Amino acid sequence: MTIASSAQLICFTVLSAVVAIGALGVVLLPNIVYSAFLLGGVFLSVAGLYLLLNASFVAAAQVLVYVGAVNVLILFAIMLVNKKEDLSAIPGLGVRRLLSGAVCAGLFALLLRVAFTTPWATPGPEPVGEEATIRIGEHLFSDYLLPFELASVLLLMAMIGAIVLARRDVLTADIATGEPADQGLIEKSRTPLLLEKTN
Amino acid sequence: MVFANPAVVSAGLDLEASFTDLLQGLGLSPGAAHLLWLPLPMLTVLVAAVVGVLVNVWLERKISAAVQQRIGPEYAGALGILQPLADGLKLLFKEDVIPARADGLLFTLGPVLVLVPVILSWLVVPFGQNLLISNVGVGIFLWISLSSIQPIGLLMAGYASNNKYSLLGGLRAAAQSISYEIPLALAVLAVVMMSNSLSTVDIVDQQTGAGILSWNIWRQPVGFAIFWICALAECERLPFDLPEAEEELVAGYQTEYAGMKFALFYLGSYINLVLSALLVSVLYLGGWGFPLPVEWIVHLTGQPIDAPLVQVITATTGIVMTVLKAYLLVFFAILLRWTVPRVRIDQLLDLGWKFLLPIALVNLLVTAGLKLAFPAFFGG
Lengths: 199, 380
Fold this sequence. Notes:
The structure holds two protein chains of two kinds. Chain A contains six helices and two strands. By secondary structure, chain A is mainly alpha-helical. Chain A has a two-stranded antiparallel sheet with strand order 1-2. In chain A, helix 1 packs antiparallel against helix 2 and helix 2 packs antiparallel against helix 3 (about 55-80). Chain A starts with a helix and ends with a strand. The model of chain A is unreliable at about 185-190 (pLDDT under 50). Chain B is globular, with a radius of gyration of 22 Å. The interface of A and B includes residues 2, 44 and 61 of A.
């Protein structure tokens, strides 16, 4: 066994273990902040797996999108609303846990069966390596153009939805002055808002 | 000093080949020789980065003193040149305090997560045609994606400190980092579009030919301004040092940190500043390029371009030019720090989202149009 292949094997083992254990931690840990940080670790390890598969562009995109954007936003949301309150215990927690455990075990068994019965072509197709960036670009602007554009429409819809949710006072005006409510940042000092819906 | 893939190097000096040949001459197998070679470029760059920080700290002290008409450090070595070392030693020997109600694990992991991506990003900084650790194909994109890991470390540090100032500082740092990353990436994208490659070496190669006239700053003046502003914001330098605004937040996310963990933040921010300056010089100021075309000068002397002596001289010029450009930018950043006041948080976010982002999009569009109209000047 050469140095390169043994290094690859070690990296693969470590990364897979981190992905599996980290993902379990995300689900099982009671502290939601730990779950969110572990999720970042899982995303990073998946990026590492992509690197092992010679897909460096996908790995970098994974880090940028999932770790840099998704996970940071999750953390933001958690930290901005992180109230220390003890939630009241749900009745029948044991049964619920048992049931969800059973569902997960069933799903795991199904996936295992699929993984073992599928005739995987080994070794897989030849990796393109550094050419991958160009190939991805070509695909995105030829045969995958429609899904690519649809994804952007989806993101636009999500963005508009988020704006509407965040600015519920869009149709409101200040009662005292009758002027439209200020949409400024919360940190700005201003008179307290007395808002009501205009008809 | 040839670090890159030897297959790319056709002739001339190849340090990797001579090093491995030497070790194989001592009776080692090719694999073991290669394994011994691998850490050398990495260690060299790591040492360079840390020495760069020491120089940076000294410059910051001296220049700020000059701006305020003080003398600055002068007893530690000639001109106070050993002052950064003294600072480092002081931090090393300080007690490592973890606040009583803090989350010890996350508290320790935070600074590490801030520092490691910055150091990893040095992977793609070229000091010469073959003078970089790895000419990876995703190049500059690797830096962008690695720098997006940093906010997680900041949030972690802010949360784990169990201190309201720390948490606010961490949230501010992450918000700032996210909002300035987008115009930054768009500015980089315009450069990448002109050089048809993400690789930092290709980006510099595209700026050679006519010396100073072919540098990207003439073709991308708007992109240069956007990139520089965003880089300052990403480094949390004044006028964008809101995450650690003393009057409002004590010291932001680093409030509870002392000793070596504080030093990691300190180191991270200075390494990031040097790295950003290096990348500005790579993207817009011709990287290792001399203001006059080197080939032209070599041609005047009548030497072949791949003679060992010529190669050593051009490589040295390349390193000197890269570092010189970077430190000119660092000098500029330090002057800015002591000249302009801090912006408010709403001004900061307005500037990022309502000004830089649209400008960066327009810049990208104009670059694409110019590339189609004048492929000879804007990379066909």
